[in-house]
């Protein structure tokens, strides 16, 4: 019994130390104050559900959307990449985020959606390998920033994070985050996971190619036609 308690204590201490190490390693690249956030072309918003199963509004979602609006209107980013899950017919994080950003006044031409952001690792790696963006701003809560940036650093991606506010009473979420970080370490160093889906290159912004033999060709988005 004593040996079991000792083993559990060692495992818990190891988990806490790894959690703190990830926080320390990523701290220089996290910005709580929008005024201090360096400008980047792309801001990648990590998706979450808009409502809990109980039907109550998810404040984590609200703060991420508001943070994205503030970063765009503040001139800190030019395009918003919305990365999230759409595994179910009636659950589509990128579409939901896009609707709320349009309502907030963000132009459709500045919004790009990634429907294969099933996990944080997928979202981070796909931003580089699919959307051809290596130095982008992640928009999410600080605890999530730390894990996302740790994944980015592992793949030599030069990301930074705008840490939006977190709701109060987040102890349960923080405990789950410790477990999520252990999962991320396992994915990166043991399982060496890659995104579930990649696909063709879709740079942000999309390159405009002038047809041969035509001197001028106006570039407009479908929303401007």
Description:
The chain is α/β, with parallel strands linked by helices. The chain has a single domain, classed as 3-Layer(aba) Sandwich (Rossmann fold), CATH 3.40.50.620. It is built from six helices and six strands; from the N terminus they run H-E-E-H-E-H-E-H-E-H-E-H. The chain has helices at 2-26, 59-73, 93-103, 120-129, 142-154, 171-191; strands spanning 30-31, 42-46, 79-83, 111-114, 137-141, 160-164. It has a six-stranded parallel beta sheet with strand order 1-6-5-2-3-4, sandwiched between helices. Helix 1 (2-26) packs across helix 6. It is globular, with a radius of gyration of 19 Å. The model is unreliable at 214-225 (pLDDT under 50).
Compute the separation of the termini in Å: 72 Å
Within the CATH hierarchy, at the fold level, what is the topology? Rossmann fold
Q: Estimate the strand proportion.
A: 5-15%
Strand order of the largest sheet: 1-6-5-2-3-4
Q: Could you spell the SSE succession in H and E letters?
A: HEEHEHEHEHEH
The radius of gyration is 19 Å
Number of structurally distinct domains:
1
Q: What is the level 1 CATH name?
A: Alpha Beta
How many extended strands?
6
Quick one: overall form? globular
The major pleated sheet works out as: 6 strands, parallel
Give the averaged pLDDT, no decimals. 90
pLDDT below 50 for ≥5 consecutive residues: which ranges? 214-225
DSSP helix fraction: 40-55%
Provide the CATH superfamily. HUPs
Structural class: alpha/beta
DSSP helical segment count: 6
At CATH level 2, the architecture is 3-Layer(aba) Sandwich
GO cellular component, one term: plasma membrane
Main location: membrane
Pfam family, one: DUF218
Protein name: SanA protein
